[in-house]
Structures are given as structure tokens and as C-alpha cells.
Structure prediction request, 316 residues.
Amino acid sequence: MKIIVIIALCAACLEGCVSTPITSANYSDMNAKKSISALQSRVGNQYWFPTRSVIISFIEEPKKWGYETISYDDYQEKSFSITDFLWIDEDHTYYKVVFGSGKVAWTDAFLFNLQGENQLLREDPKIAIRKEIESEIQKEKERAAKEDEERKNRTIEIMEVLKKNGISVGSPVWMQHPKYGFTGLQKVLIRKISITPDIFPISSEVELVGEAAGVERPMKIGTFSIVRDDPSDYLDTFYVSDPEKKTAKWGKAVLKAIHESKVMIGMTDKQAMTSWGPPNQINRSGGQWGLHEQWVYGDHGQYLYFENGRLSSWQN
Prediction:
């Protein structure tokens, strides 16, 4: 660091200077010692210059009267230590300092106490930077550990919610309609549950792996918050108990068509949805003849037409 220092010790000098400096070893005024004990306590301290400029005055030799200017052109110092304290009188107190280079100088102790010390560092900047980096690394480790713990707790919580809704590893579900490559009413065994919880917002990616007919397929059931959302809204793809008793009355022909992802004239809207799934769009019209619906399947490129809830025709 380049240091340019200018010293102003006093106003005009009318008297001579102190020829022999009075150090802490050769004065004995007890009252004076008591009044300047705070200043003396810095003897032995080491200071480092920050990268920014500082305004601290140094002189080559302390004077009782007068002032002198010292310019350290191209003179770089990184640190100094206070090695002694000089008390001339109640208005003139000095610290003897030794720079890192070994050069000796003096600085006004009273001014140093008021505005000098707070400009300096009490620790080697290299060590301070290393400590700061280590501190940030430790904070990051603690933050990551806390988030991991929160994710584990969130995963356990979500698993419990899914279990209460009939979804757990090894449990069967039945498809309400075709999805994930499975057909409507097909029985699927849950082989795996993967949860990717987020800390903020409190939401989670939930994906199941289901098996049917010896084939496993991923089933991403969505991202939801178990705090704000009802998980059942995201599980409407499945029956968690065998729907056979409810669907037996549909008849073998309808059930065969559903298992083959086909439709047939006379199917109810619920049966058709079980076979083909929800349409992309439903257009409705009504009159004296009853309710007419057109179901648009963009993915299939087909239309289903219902009259009063029964499939009457379809169109490619």
C-alpha cells in the first residue's frame, strides 16, 4: 500500500523541541499514568492497513512545539506495531510504531484514539479473508444440511399423505381412464414412489412407477403443496379399491371395449371417458330433443357425439 502522510501537531512553534523523548520507562507521575492508562493499553497492538486509503499522521520524531511534514513517496507498508507510549504533557502524547519493514515512526496517541484506530484492521487481511471464506463455506454447509433435513421431513410427510389416500409401495390401483400407457380399469401395482420436495414454495414433484402385465411405466401425478392443496385432486386418475362391483353392471361387451381402448354405440359418457379418457373439449347444445354433446379428441383426431348422455356416433 502506498501511504502518503502529512502531520499537523500544533500551531506556530515559539519554543524549542524536546531533545530527549520521555518514554513509558522514565516518568513517574501517578496521576498522569492513571489519566492515560487507556492510551497506554494499546502498546503491543499490531494493526494492518486496509486496501482503502486512510488518514493517519506519522512523524519521525515527537516535538513539544511546532509541526513538520513527512512524505512517504512510493513507500509501501502493510502493517505496524505500537511498541511504546510517549507522554510529554497533557496535550502531547505519542505512540512509537514500528512498520513491517522495520522503519520507526511516531503518531499522535490522542488522535489515533479518536479517529485512527477505527480505520485500521486488527488482523492480517489474508487471514481475515481466509476466515471469511471458511465461515461462508461453513454457513453453506449448515444451510444445505438444514434444507436436506427439511426435504427428508417433507418426503416423510408426503408419503404419509399418499398412504392415507391409498397410495403406497406395493399397493394396487386401478386406472379411472387410460393414462401413462395403461388402459382404463387396468390394475396397476405401485412399485416405486419418488418425491422431489422443494423448500420454497412448499411443493413437491411426485412420480410413481406402476407395473401392469409385466411392464413398468412412470406416472408423474403432479406438483402440489400438501399445505395448500388437497392431494386427492391429484390422484383422480386412480381408483384405490377394485371398481369391479361398480363396473360389473356395464356388461362384458362394454368392459371388453374399455380394456381394448375402444368405444361402442350406446356407451354412457362415463363409460366412454373410462375407455378414451377426458376429451380436449366438450361442445354442448340443448333443446326440446334433449342434450347434445360433441367431445373433441385432438390427440385421436376423432369426435364422439352423445345424445342425452349416450354415445350415438363418432367421427374421424
User: Anything to note?
Assistant: The CA atoms of residues 282 and 295 lie 5 Å apart. The chain has seven helices and 13 strands.
